[in-house]
Protein: Ribosomal RNA small subunit methyltransferase A
Organism: Novipirellula artificiosorum
Amino acid sequence: MNQPYPNEREPNETRQTATYLSKRLAQAGLRPVTRFGQNFLIDLNLIDLIARSAELKPNDVVFEVGTGVGSLTAKLADAAGAVLSIEIDANLHQLASEELSGRPNVLLLKGDALRNKNALRDDLMGHIRDAIARIGDDARFALVANLPYNIATPLISNLLHETPYPDVIVVTIQKELADRMVAQPGTKDYGALSVWVQSVCRASIVRVLSPKVFWPRPKVDSAIIRLDAEPEKRAAIPDLKYFHDTVRALFFHRRKFLRSVVISAMKGRLDKAEVDQVLASLGHGETSRTEQLTVTELQQLVEALRQAEAKKATS
Ligand SMILES: C[S@@+](CC[C@H](N)C(=O)[O-])C[C@H]1O[C@@H](n2cnc3c(N)ncnc32)[C@H](O)[C@@H]1O
């Protein structure tokens, strides 16, 4: 294994504490930047737990968003074949580059992981595909990170649209967001995000984390979440973008009945009679509500709407 840090420093295992981090940043004239969601994990056991929960092997290509000072990155690089990590803060990118130098399986990028809310930075998937090609047919793609909370939803949501999409995701996110990802029909947390995530993955919460395990402390609880890709489920959705956009529209007015929600979502595309026909064919009555529909029922509904629209366009 490579020696990750120069010999004169303490070994990695004892260094990741609030004191160490604050000193290390202060030495470089830095302080945590709130707008970049810089809440560093200071419990080494949890850094281990994140890496262990992804069950990394040498055939894994790991994507990390938010290198920070590189503590989790080093753990990931110990276990995986290749690690691609991106950091928006140029100062932290510089620090992490020093910490992780001499690790041939780590590629550090500087900049924003997102081009905009709806898209990843342009070159990211190219880097990931290259690393996968180098590893070969049995390569696995993983997203493992202590995510900056302000980009967790668009990042995960956009990655699930990509080809390939991650075989496994193990990330620290706000607990409230984790609850939404695993939520079941009929609960207050069940919404478009639950349906999108559960349409292409199996989702579970690994551990709830108190603010105490971060420095500086965030205001809310966090959770480590694990998502396992279910490619056969994703393959059953003929048009991912149509599905994603329509599900979002269907959850837009949570208090309304399904019929009026579908009518407004399909405005200008299907008329009321056509919507009624689709709903009747699937057995959804006057009092059905979007939030009571299972993921499978929503997939069937969106696909029936898509086909009705396509039929109308060709008639
Ligand atoms: C919660 S910290 C995690 C840092 C480190 N990996 C750890 O576990 O302690 C999130 C990191 O993501 C970086 N970051 C924030 N927004 C980003 C973005 N849009 N693209 C890339 N990195 C970002 C922050 O600067 C910060 O270093």
Q: What stands out?
A: Confidence is low (pLDDT under 50) at residues 1-14. The first helix runs from residue 12 to 15. Residues 36-41, 65-68, 71-72, 86-89, 92, 112-114, 146, 148, 151 surround S-adenosylmethionine (CB under 6 Å).
